[in-house]
Design brief:
Strand content: 15-25%
Radius of gyration: 17 Å
Oligomer: single chain
Helix content: 10-25%
Length: 255
């Protein structure tokens, strides 16, 4: 099993990891560390994979919490655990409780882990383009502030996601971004295919975080689409006409 860390690791009260697909028990299109009960993978094997992640974070498996993600800006403030059957529909979590790991499942969207460097308050967000443009990052920061976090003490790390060389979109994809802010033109460039563009999701995500006024933004700079050995990718699945796909997990916990 392998996972990536960032400068969040310098914050002594927490553990975090952007887990890859390497080392899990799933097979077929889910081969590796598939952690999504929403996939068509065997639930018992998914539970085994998630238990490995929990062990790496030094928590009980039942304390690795994920959501029914719906590409929204909804945030859940976590005070106790839940099962995957009773998980709320939302796309971000925050907590000040020790031992409850906040998990985000992705396969091209950007997982964002956040922490206050002074106060023991953490957050995690699922930032696909819909969530990012819809304000999920700002909502997560605001929810952390309600728990006592200070905005300029918050730092964030962007995990593996579809990268600036891979995210090809149609020309009309850009419209809502430009309508929201003309400066968002910076995150698009022409693609080789006529009438198509390349969108830089991690740069856009980082800009939203910086404009929100937090203290620092880190980036793993890992592109999920071309690196099949390490990451699941929804776009790769679509290109191949496969019917399902796995999701890697990113998680953060107060020790």
């Amino acid at each position: 099993m392998r996972f990536l860390t960032t400068d969040l690791e310098k914050i002594k009260y927490l553990r975090h990891g952007f887990f890859t697909r390497i080392g899990g028990a799933s097979d077929g299109v889910f081969s590796g560390m598939n952690c999504a009960f929403s996939s068509g993978d065997n639930p018992d094997i998914i539970a085994m994979n998630r238990a490995k992640v929990a062990e790496a974070l030094d928590i009980a498996p039942e304390n690795l919490l994920t959501l029914k993600q719906v590409h929204s800006a909804r945030v859940v403030t976590v005070s106790q655990g839940w099962t995957h059957e009773t998980a709320p529909q939302a796309d971000a979590l925050v907590t000040d409780r020790k031992g409850l790991a906040l998990g985000i499942l992705t396969a091209d969207c950007a997982p964002v882990l956040l922490a206050d460097t002074k106060n023991k308050i953490i957050g995690a967000a699922h930032a696909g383009w819909k969530g990012a443009i819809g304000g999920v990052l700002e909502s997560t920061i605001a929810a952390m502030e309600k728990l006592g976090a200070v905005r300029n003490h918050i730092v964030a790390a962007i995990g593996p996601c579809i990268g600036p060389q891979s995210y090809e979109v149609g020309a009309d994809f850009k419209v809502p971004f430009i309508e929201q802010n003309a400066d968002n033109e910076l995150f698009f460039r022409p693609a080789e295919k006529d009438g198509h563009l390349i969108f830089d999701l991690p740069a856009y995500t980082a800009q939203r975080l910086r404009l929100a006024g937090i203290g620092a933004v880190y980036d793993t700079r890992q592109d999920t689409l071309p690196n099949e050995a390490a990451f699941f990718s929804y776009r790769r699945t679509c290109q191949r006409g496969e019917k399902d796909y796995g999701r890697q997990i990113s998680a953060i916990v107060i020790r």
